Amino acid sequence: MGSIVVPGSGDLARTADVVIIGGGVIGCATAFYVSSSGLATVVLERRDALGTLTTAASEECFRAQFDETENIRMMLESITVFEAFADVVGIAGYNLSLHQQGYLFLTDEPGALTVQQRVAHQRRQGLHDVEFLDAQQVRQTFAFIGDEVHGAAYRAKDGWLSAHELVSGFAKGSRAFFALQTPATGIRLDTQGVCAVETPRGEIQTRCVVIAAGPFSSVVGAQAGAKLPLTAIRRQKVVLRDTAGIPQHAPMTIDLASGAYWRPETGGAALGLALPEEPSPPTERVPTDWTFPAIVLDAVGRLVPFWSGVAARLTRDQVFLSAGQYTCTPDLKPIIGPVPDVPGLFVNSGYSGHGIMASPAGARMLADSILHVDATLHNPFRPDRFTELGTQISAERLVL
What is the β-pairing status of strands 41-44 and 18-21? Predict the structure, then answer.
């Protein structure tokens, strides 16, 4: 079982096979798979607890409804882990609070044919259980859908879970040592590549360092002279508590035209919308904008009429607003594997808002890239895919 402590004098190992920088969901999942292979693993987390930065601000959802084969495969592998999580981490009866209530992408009349074609494409890519629902089918299945909806994509096995329990399960089920309140202040190199990680509690000698620091990954990479093509983008989240009129059996529901989404949360709902945002410096305190709840509530009501009534009855003490940062790459796919030109330096970051849902498969891939050199050749998310691309992320692409 993993050891999660604030190290005292002499507690922090002076050598390790692998040092992972970052104790969010990606770092903890990586620690589970790496340490399970028998490698002595240390995770450095500068905050007081694991999973308290971007992981805690996430929507906690997962889906396999992607267009690219590599994304579909990654998500299906991860969902299989979620479904058998207690067995995977070896903790009998472990409860991930898994809700497989589906993902429902809604469209009005102009987009119906496009959604139908997208579902057909996804099925050809191996996602055989995604469905297209026409206007009649979607309202028969989900009575709360408005008349403006002319089609939908639906997959019943998508859903959401507890991010806190996911992080804790990976950490407790691992064989790693998790050092809290222990930032990585430097990565030392020698003629062979990575040789040590510096911390305020002492130096750890290692030939393998994994950067899994979310929006701070580019900052950590710079310690080793690596320029990672990562950009931080703010995303806000609204949670409604003690709110009547929200069907608790509903799926995660998204308006494809606006991107506005909502899902049930015990006694209420969680809502969000990816508004256009300029990239921002990584920060531990992401500011919020209290105009955001009104914008989201108006947007989700366009195709789901009951939201107008909910919004009219809301009081300020029922509304909770938070924000985090997506760590984005130029193609909005993660970077997983060895960093070019810095032997021993690996990265597992840049999930562009999909870190919770892809964490098991991404961590397994990262572990494979450490254990098997040739694994990188078959990895569609390897860092060197950007060699011939620019490193500036497109804000316009993020809006899409």
Answer: parallel
Tens of pLDDT along 364-377? 999 999 999 888 88
Give the three-class secondary structure for 270: strand
Outline where 286-394 has alpha helix (H): 292-300, 306-313, 355-371
Question: Can you read off the two tokens belonging to residue 196?
Answer: 């040590």
| Residue located via tokens 């305020």 | 200
pLDDT value at 391 more than 90: no
Instruction: Report the SS3 class of residue 320.
Output: strand
The closest of 294, 305, 327 to 255, measured between CA atoms, is 305
List beta partners, residue 272.
237, 261
Q: List helix spans (H) across 43-104.
A: 69-83, 85-89
Contact 345, 226 (CB under 8 A): yes
Phi and psi torsions of 177, nearest 5°: -105, 120
Residue 172 contacts residue 15 (beta carbons within 8 Å): no
Instruction: Tell me if 302 sits within 8 A of 295, measured CB to CB.
Output: no
Q: What are phi and psi of 358, to 5 degrees?
A: -105, 0
Buried b (16+ CB within 10 A) or exposed e, 338-360: bbeebbbbbbbbbbbbbbbbbbb
Q: Residue 299 burial (CB < 10 Å; 0-12/13-18/19+)?
A: buried
Would you say 243 and 58 are in contact if contact means Cβ atoms under 8 Å apart?
A: no
Q: What global pTM score does this model have? A: 0.95
Per-residue DSSP letter, 392: P
Rounded to an integer, what distance in angstroms lies between the CA atom of residue 249 and that of residue 231?
36
